[in-house]
Amino acid sequence: LISIEMSAPCPLTMDQMSNVAMSVLVNRYYNKGTAFTEKERRDNGILGRLPPRVETLEQQVSRAMDQLDKFEKPIEKYVHLNSIHSGNVTLYYAILQNYPEKMLPIVYTPTVGEACQKFGSIFVRERGLYLSSCYRSEFPACIEDSRYTDVDIIVVTDGSRILGLGDLGANGMGISIGKCSLYVAGAGVHPGRVLPVMLDCGTNNEHLKNDPLYLGQRVSRVPDETFYGLLDEFMEAASKQWPNAVIQFEDFSNNHCFDMLERYQNKYRCFNDDIQGTGAVVSAGFVNAMRLSKNQDHKIVVFGAGSAASGVVNSIADLCTQTFKMERKDVIDRVYLVDSKGLVTKNRGDKLQKHKIPFAREDVPEGESANLRTLEQVVKYVKPTALLGLAGVGPVFTEEIVKFMHSYCDRPIVFPLSNPTSKAECDARDAYRWTNGDAIVASGSPFPEVVVNGKICKPSQGNNMYIFPGIGLGISIAQPKTISNEVLVEASRKLCEMISVSQMESQNILYPPLDEIRYVSKHIAVAIIRHLQKTGEATTKLPDNYPDILKLVDRHMYQPVYPDAASYIAAGRKPRSNSSDQK
Questions:
Q1: Buried b (16+ CB within 10 A) or exposed e, 364-378
Q2: Sheet (strand 194-200) strand order
Q3: By Cβ atoms counted within 10 A, which residue in 17, 44, 82, 382 is the most buried?
Q4: 133 contact partners, CB below 8 Å, separation of at least 6
C-alpha cells in the first residue's frame, strides 16, 4: 500500500469567494456559455475561460440535440438535460421549446418515473426547496433563506404516491422538478419564478431506507397529526413569503389528497393536479371522443378508484353537463367504478372510502355484486362502450376484453391512462390492432403510431400538460384569492373546443398536437382570466376583451433568449477597461 499525503485545500479569501459566486459562468440563469461575445467576455473577466469561438443559441441547441441523439436510453437523455439545466437554464428551455415532442417525454412522463426511482444516484445539483419534518417550526426561516424572491408557481409533493410507482419518499422531488419544467416550456412561466418543493415526511419504502444513495430522511412516515401540522406550517409560510403564488399539490397519497383539497381549497390559491388536472384533461379528451363517436349514450367502466379516477368522473360529469346539457346525475349513473375488490357497490360488504361513495352502484343485486370481482367480469356484466384505466397496475385491458367491447360497439373508447408506460393498462397500439383500427384511444404516456388496415393510427396522449400550465399562467395573472372547481371546468371546456370534429376525423386525434402546447396554454389562460372577470374573482386590473387579454398573456410568457449585456453588469460585476478604452 502506498500512502499519499494530500495537501490541505488552499482557502479562498472572502473577495475570491465573492468573485466566484458572482461569476456569470456559475449562475445558471445568466450563463450563456459559448454564446458570450468577446466584449462580454472581456467585461466579465472570463475571456480565457471559454473556447474562442462565439456561437448563437441556435448553434448551441443544435450541438445539444446532437449530443442527446447519441444516447440510447431515455434516462441517459434525462441526465444530460439535467446537466445542461445545471449550467445554462436558457439553453435548457430553448431545447424543450424547439423540440417539444422529443423532449417532453424525457423531461416528464414516461421517463420521469425512472428518474424518480434513481433520483439519488443521478443527483447533480440542488434545484428547488427541501423541507423536512426534522425542520419543523423552521419552515418560515428555510423559505426566507431560500433566496427565491418572486414566485408565481409552487409544485409541492411528499413523494408518497409517485405516478403508479408508490412511495418514493424524497425521490419524488423529480416530479415537482418535472412539473415546474413543464410550466416554463408549456406556458412560458419564467424559470426563476417556478419553485419545486419536497415536503420530506419520511418514507415507508424499506428499500429506500437501506439505499446508501437515498438522499431523504431514513425514517418512517410521520403520523397524520404531524403531517397536517407540517403542511399547515408550509402553506402559511409559503403564502406569506410569496402571496401571489399558485400552489399545486402533486402526487400525495389517497389517504391525504382529498382531505388536503378540502382543507385548503377555500383558504389558499391552490389546486390538486392529480384530482383536478387529470380530471380536466381526461374529460376534455372523453367529450371529444363522444363527439367523434357521434354517440352520447355511453356506459363507462373506470378501472381504478383513487384520486385520479374520482377527479376524472367528476370532471366528465361537469363537462358533459355543460357541453351536452345532460343532467349531472344521469352522467354519474352511466359510470361503473372498479377497484381492487371489484365493482364498487353499496352492498359489496366492505366499508367504502369517502371519495368512492358518490359513485357506488345501488342497482346491482347483492348476489350479482359478489360475482363482479374482476375487470373482465364487470365488462361482461356492464357491456361498456368506454373503458378508462387509472389504477396504475399494468396491463389489464386484455385482447379478450377489448374485442368483446368491439363486438357490440362500432367505436369503443379505450383510454389506458396510467403512468409510466410500464403501468399502462395496455399498449395503446394494441387497442387499435384488436379493433381493426376502430377504437378511439388516448393514453397517459406517449405511444408510437401503428398502421392498421392501411390506416395510420396514433394514440392521443391525455397529458396533464394540456391543462395545468395554462391554469397556472391565467391564475398568476388574474390573482383570484382561491381556485374554484369552475376554473378547472372552464379550462377543460376551452381545451375541448380547440380541436374540431373534422380535425379529429382527418388526423385521428383528440387533443391539439403537443408542439402547439404554448398556443393551447395561452388560450386556456385567457379563457380562465375571462371567467374570473365574469365571476368577479379576478383581483387585478386587466383588459376586458379577448384580443387585448391575449396580447397581455403573450407579453407575460417567457421566451428562452439570452439577456443583453447590460443584464450581466447589473448581475454584480462592473465592466473593466481594456487597453483600447484606456487609450
A1: beeeebeebeebeeb
A2: 129-132, 194-200, 153-157, 246-249, 270-272
A3: 44
A4: 200, 201, 202, 217, 219, 222, 226, 230
Q: Which residues contact 51 (CB under 8 A, 6 or more apart)?
A: 34
d(CA 440, CA 288) in angstroms, rounded, equals 10
From the CA atom positions of the chain, what is the Rg in Å? 25
Sheet containing 335-339: give its strands across.
Answer: 342-343, 335-339, 300-303, 386-389, 413-416, 440-443, 460-461
State the pLDDT confidence band at 24, using cuts at 50, 70 and 90.
confident
Rounded CA separation 287/464 (Å): 16
Going by C-beta distance under 8 Å and a sequence separation of 6 or more, which residues neighbour residue 122? 75, 78, 79, 82, 115
| CA atoms lying within 13 Å on the CB side of residue 251 | 36
What does each C-alpha distance from 581 to 39, 41, 52, 61, 575 come to in angstroms? Answer: 12, 15, 21, 34, 11
Q: How confident is the model at residue 581 (pLDDT cuts 50, 70, 90)?
A: very low
Per residue in 449-478, pLDDT (tens digit) is 999 999 999 999 999 999 999 999 999 999
What is the residue whose three cell numbers read 427565491? Answer: 148
Summarize pLDDT for 491-537 with one digit per residue, the tens.
Answer: 999 999 999 999 998 888 999 998 999 999 999 999 999 999 999 99
337: closest CA among 329, 347, 328, 345?
345
3-state secondary structure 77-135: HHHHHHHHHHHCHHHHHHHHHHCHHHHHHHHCCCHHHHHHHCHHHHCCCCCCEEEEHHH
d(CA 55, CA 490): 44
Average pLDDT over residues 566-582: 51
Q: Which amino acid belongs to residue 251?
A: D
| Percent over 90 (pLDDT), the chain | 85
Where in the sequence numbering do the catalytic residues fall? 108, 179
Who contacts 123 (Cβ-Cβ below 8 Å, separation ≥6)?
Answer: 215
C-alpha grid cell, residue 58: 441556435
9: cis peptide before it, omega within 30°? no
CB 460 within 8 A of CB 443: yes
Written as one letter, the residue type at 178 is G
**Range list of H helices, 300-362:** 307-324, 328-333
Count CB-CB contacts under 10 A for residue 583. Answer: 6
Half-sphere exposure in the Cβ direction for 411 (13 Å, CA): 16
CA pair distance 260, 278, nearest whole angstrom: 17
Instruction: Measure Cα distances from 393 to 292, 336, 352, 365, 379 in Å.
Output: 29, 18, 20, 28, 18
- Which pairs with CB-CB distance under 8 Å and at least 24 residues apart come from 319-323? 319/283, 319/284, 319/286, 319/287, 319/489, 319/492, 319/493, 319/496, 320/283, 320/287, 320/290, 320/296, 322/489, 322/493, 323/287, 323/493, 323/496
Please list the residues that pair with 414 across neighbouring strands: 387, 441
Angstrom distance (rounded) from CA 143 to CA 149: 10
Place of cell 469567494: 17
- Phi, psi dihedrals of residue 383, rounded to the nearest 5°: 55, 65
49 vs 40: CA distance, rounded Å: 12
Q: Is 441 exposed, middle or buried (0-12, 13-18, 19+ CB in 10 A)?
A: buried
